[in-house]
Write a structure and sequence with these properties.
Elements (H helix, E strand, L loop, with lengths): L8 H20 L1 E7 L5 H9 L8 E10 L21 E2 L2 H17 L11 E11 L2 H11 L8 E15 L2 E15 L12 H25 L2 H17 L48 H6 L6
Parallel strand pairs: 2-4
Antiparallel strand pairs: 1-6, 2-3, 4-5, 5-6
Helix pairs in contact: 3-5
Length: about 300
């Protein structure tokens, strides 16, 4: 009796084995490396940790704006050369925003810059990311359009910009640092994936930026002289341009000898009657009285 071996059973089993391996290879054939203005100065960090006189903040407000990754082919047919399409930011996911808020409070509290009970004032932290991606975005466009990236290296560059603002007696102070996270896709980088995975590198970069921001805030708070000088100069310029409210007093002329003055008589204040060119007419002479005329008798005829 001849046994016939069923075809297709072994091939299906091989496919079930190959697909998970291919998916693991796609996710593991990349490595991320970060760079930028994130190095810490040991002297400044030590002074920050040892300084007990600095007044911490009582509140921390965080915000995260993300410009998601877009493949160059995604913008085909949108806009024109003279009117390119505008890229609008999208709010970060709730999990990422909560991680940023939690790490900001923990790191600033360790640095002595945050204390909700003894502190005062509010610190505003803003994080802006450009080209931040996840594997779902890559499988939709990047990996599908450039399937050869594992043979030829390809890199995605993500930009992180963190800004801190707070108010002091000298005005509003602002610090800003920028960092980059480069993820390179290549087949030979698969062994490095556990140590340099993109997700872990992104979180590590945020932590380093928070520590660098803490040292920048400390330097601004300990050296605000230039801010006070600018504010004082602007106030002096504004005061010079304004007109004085009260006329200035005349200088005391002490070199002039005072002149003696005679006391005027009391009737000096009376004014003479005003003379005019018109004079009143002389009064007419009165007619003789009848009694006087009657005293003279006329002779009788």
């Amino acid at each position: 009796m001849i046994k016939v071996k069923k075809a297709g059973g072994g091939g299906l089993g091989k496919i079930k084995i190959i697909l998970p391996l291919a998916a693991a290879l796609l996710c593991g054939a990349c490595a991320s490396f970060h760079s930028g203005d994130i190095l810490l100065e040991r002297g400044t960090l030590k002074a920050l940790l040892d300084d007990k006189t600095i007044k911490p903040f009582s509140k921390i407000q965080v915000s995260w704006q993300n410009y998601p990754f877009r493949n160059p082919t995604d913008s085909i047919g949108e806009g024109s050369i003279s009117n390119p399409p505008k890229i609008t930011p999208a709010p970060a996911e709730s999990e990422d925003l909560e991680y940023f808020r939690r790490k900001a409070k923990d790191i600033l509290a360790d640095a002595g810059l945050y204390d909700p009970k003894k502190g005062a004032g509010t610190l505003k932290l803003t994080l802006v990311t450009v080209n931040r991606w996840n594997y779902r975005d890559l499988f939709k466009s990047y990996l599908a359009d450039t399937s050869f990236i594992f043979l030829l290296p390809s890199t995605i560059k993500t930009v992180y910009a963190m800004t801190a603002e707070f108010r002091t007696s000298s005005g509003t102070l602002r610090t800003e640092i920028t960092a980059y996270n480069k993820t390179t896709f290549h087949l030979l980088l698969a062994p490095l994936y556990p140590l340099f995975s993109p997700g872990a590198k992104g979180k590590s970069l945020i932590r380093q930026m928070l520590w660098r921001t803490s040292t920048e805030i400390y330097e601004k708070m300990k050296h605000p002289v230039y801010e006070k000088d600018i504010r004082r100069a602007s106030q002096e310029t504004r005061t010079d341009n304004q007109a004085p409210a009260v006329p200035p007093e005349p200088p005391a002329r002490t070199w002039i000898v005072p002149v003696s003055r005679e006391i005027a008589p009391d009737n000096q204040g009376e004014t003479a009657p005003l003379e005019t060119g018109i004079k009143p007419a002389p009064a007419a002479k009165a007619a003789p009285n009848a009694d006087q005329n009657g005293a003279e008798e006329t002779p009788d005829d």
